[in-house]
Amino acid sequence: MSRVPSILNPTEEDIKLLLSAQCHIGTKNVNKAMTTYVHKRRADGINLINIGKTWEKLILAARIITAIENPQDIVVVSARPYGHRAALKFAKYIGAEAIVGRFTPGTFTNYITRSFREPRLVICTDPRSDFQAVLEASYVNIPVISLADTDATLKYIDVAIPTNNKAKHSIGLIYWLLARAVLRLRGSLEYAATWEVMVDMFFYRDPEEIEKENEAAEFEDNDFAAAADAVAGEWGVEVEAEGVAGIAAAADWSAQAGTSDWADDVEAPANASWDA
């Protein structure tokens, strides 16, 4: 780590995060341009990426991003589904613009289209899936920063961050570390302070899992509402019974009050006998 200033060196926690997210796991194939970033090859044929060089390129990319005066001139592109959420979150926290999903051809070259952009820097998730954006950026001399696996082609790529760009956790972690490094270089975040944004916010979430969680939450809410209604119904029955009992009691009292008519009926023949 001699190429990086001491203040920018990774901590032990950063190294643990990179290893736990499997950022060092490459593929069985190695591109010639990526051989310098490969540490060694395992017995099963998987190539391992040098984490030290990954961190060096990460800091270099953060310094390049910080040099852009207007963050809105930065475009983050991700056609890979695992990188959609990470790209959107990264663009949100650094103030850039994100283009996720299908990249419209001519976005950087055809000024007639509605989606025309003139960025000063392009950040890609995968050089292969985002090759249309990389190619158009080369036409208009826009520098490109991209995450690159061991089998990635570095054609038209200016800065490659060697990492595993096929797993959702590694993609999310790299974007999270890059956003944190940019904020620290800008001075909006202290180096000694921990970033309040959790790395989980950058991880891809399956829409089916989200729907299942929402259905489970709705089911729990419905059960709670049904239990509350049942309890309220029991109390309502008791109140109604008390009301009926009160009405019945009132009816009995009114019936007893009607005995005054009997006295009148008894006195009537007596009066009639005295008159006789």
Can you put this structure into words, describing what you see?
α4 (131-139) links the parallel β5 (121-124) and β6. The mean pLDDT is 80. The chain has helices spanning 12-20, 51-67, 84-94, 131-139, 168-186, 207-257, 260-275, and strands spanning 38-41, 47-49, 74-78, 97-100, 121-124, 144-148, 159-162. With 276 residues, it is α/β, with parallel strands linked by helices. The protein is 48% helix and 11% strand. It has a five-stranded parallel β-sheet with strand order 4-3-5-6-7, sandwiched between helices. A two-stranded antiparallel ribbon has the order 1-2. α2 (51-67) packs across α5 (168-186) and α3 packs parallel to α5.
What is the beta-strand fraction?
5-15%
The H/E string reads HEEHEHEEHEEHHH
The number of helices is 7
Total number of strands: 7
Structural class: alpha/beta
Shape: globular
Radius of gyration: 37 Å
What share of residues is helical?
A: 40-55%
Strand order of the largest sheet: 4-3-5-6-7
Largest sheet properties? 5 strands, parallel
The chain-level mean pLDDT equals 80
First CA to last CA: what distance?
135 Å
* Stretches with pLDDT under 50, minimum 5 residues: none
